[in-house]
Design a protein that fits this description.
Blueprint (H helix, E strand, L loop, with lengths): L14 H10 L16 E3 L2 H10 L9 E2 L12 E2 L9 E3 L34 H21 L3 H30 L6 H19 L7 H24 L1 H27 L10 H6 L8 H27 L15
Antiparallel strand pairs: 1-4, 2-3
Helix pairs in contact: 1-2, 3-7, 4-5, 4-6, 4-7, 6-7, 7-9
The structure holds fe (ii) ion (2 copies).
GO molecular function, one term: ubiquinol:oxygen oxidoreductase activity
Pfam families: AOX (PF01786)
Organism: Eleusine coracana subsp. coracana
């Protein structure tokens, strides 16, 4: 496990005080999958404290907002003076610029496995499989009608739904683990990872398509219905619920393939990739929307595999906790 350390200096604040603080309280993080990436410098909140202490100097025990230099997600990041010593960690890239995403950190980033087989399909066998396939096909019809070939908007809206199942299933298994005093086999983490990954898809597509008010209202309604429907399905038949998601992901792979086709045909402008996507998937500099859609499609194919696999485990008479979960499967 690589541990990376180097001096870091913010543009603001006294460099002498900063050096002292860094020497006194350097915090290291395991780099894990990000080792070898272009991000090399990690340091604790001391640096931020050094600059803000001089600027605002709130007394220990007091609590109030501290004026913050423009940085972070859309310059909206705030900092609060903390008596509790839980000020956010600061991360700096090797070029000296600050890591600006507080919603994910360098160790959450990865390079998508684009070699995954996009054509895999689970042939429905049982009645539950067929019902799941039918349900997904039925959901696709109004989606096609509503969005037609507006793939940017379509992707954004579908990701608001796609991020629900992993969170629901992960929460159910989490609570079950607590109630029954038993391990989850890693499935809680794997499913929550999927939910987070789907939410990052949404954060990305938000940058290329802005929802209008009626689309936001639509999302609220769909989430209300889908959340409860999926929870009920998961409690009654987790095998069927995972199968539904497996088929949803197959459809997602298909939709993103169509998206790519329209980009290649020049029907959709191949705009530069959003900065959040470049960092999250470690895309090359100069990456475009096409690169983003490709990596998102690869993610969907991985979700397809995980959910069909989970359903198969149930169908084979096992509990998920008995089979090690594919944690970190991207
Ligand atoms: Fe997604
Ligand atoms: Fe997905």
């Amino acid at each position: 496990m690589a541990m990376v350390q180097s001096a870091a200096r913010r543009a603001t604040g006294s460099s002498a005080a900063l050096t002292l603080l860094l020497g006194a309280k350097m915090r290291l993080f395991p780099m894990g999958p990000v080792a070898g990436s272009r991000l090399v410098t990690i340091f604790s909140s001391c640096a931020r404290s050094a600059s803000t202490a001089a600027d605002a100097a709130p007394e220990a025990g007091s609590f109030g907002a501290v004026a913050q230099p423009a940085s972070g997600d859309n310059n909206k990041e705030k900092e609060a003076a903390s008596y509790w010593g839980v000020a956010p960690t600061r991360v700096v890239k090797e070029d000296g610029t600050e890591w600006k995403w507080s919603c994910f950190r360098p160790w959450d980033t990865y390079e998508a496995d684009l070699s995954i087989d996009l054509t895999k399909h689970h042939e429905p066998v049982t009645f539950g499989d067929k019902a799941a396939r039918w349900a997904v096909k039925a959901m696709r019809w109004p989606t096609d009608l509503f969005f037609q070939r507006r793939y940017g908007c379509r992707a954004m809206m579908l990701e608001t739904v796609a991020a629900v199942p992993g969170m629901v299933a992960g929460s159910v298994l989490h609570l079950r683990s607590l109630r029954r005093f038993e391990q989850s086999g890693g499935w809680v983490r794997a499913l929550l990872e999927e939910a987070e990954n789907e939410r990052m898809h949404l954060m990305t597509f938000m940058e290329v398509a802005r929802p209008r008010w009626h689309e936001r209202a639509f999302v609220v309604a769909v989430q209300g219905v889908f959340l409860h429907a999926y929870l009920a399905t998961y409690l009654v038949s987790p095998a069927a619920a995972h199968r539904v998601v497996g088929y949803l992901e197959e459809e997602a792979v298909h939709s993103y393939t169509e998206f790519l086709r329209d980009i290649d045909a020049g029907k959709i402008e191949d705009v530069p990739a959003p900065a959040i996507a470049v960092d999250y998937w470690r895309l090359r500099p100069g990456a475009t929307l096409r690169d983003v859609v490709e990596v998102v499609r690869a993610d969907e194919a991985h979700h397809r595999d995980v959910n069909h696999y989970a359903s198969d485990i149930h169908r084979q008479g096992h509990a998920l906790r008995d089979v090690a979960a594919p944690i970190g499967y991207h």
